[in-house]
Amino acid sequence: MRKTTEIAVEIEKLKEELADVKGTNTEVYTRIVGYYRPVQNWNSGKKEEYGERVEFSVEKDEKAEEQESCSEVEDDSKSKDESFNIIVNDKGEIKKYKLFYSDNCPGCPPVKNYLKQISFSGEEINAGTKEGLEEAIKNNITGTPTVLFLNDAGDVITKAHTPLQIEQAIAV
According to DSSP H, which parts of the chain are helical? Predict the structure, then answer.
């Protein structure tokens, strides 16, 4: 068994080695006010804001959105001990879509290509035009690509931003 003094000496050696570690600075780029810049060139207020940023998981947001558009139904045919909940989409079936895109959007071409493969009819709206922007504002669209899936009445059932999200939306 090692003595605490031996461990303390080893810790001191490791601290000295760590102090002598050499390397190069890494330049970190991230988005600020609509474009990418090195964080080291930001003003002090933006650097502080960057330090306070919190990462989030899109999966969690999708689940929350899915729960908002669903309602719980209890099966009355079972006894209370055997009851269970069924999640039902109360807005109906997907019948068509609206794709909001912009010409300089790197994520838009894969979404457009994926939508060409599905059997739903749809409409493509360029959010970069005056009319498209007005339609986007009317539909609370904050970024492109955004696909709204609609029922027969034109109500939004769900929305998607990537081919994977589209696949998940139409698989329901």
Answer: 4-19, 44-52, 58-68, 108-116, 130-138, 163-171
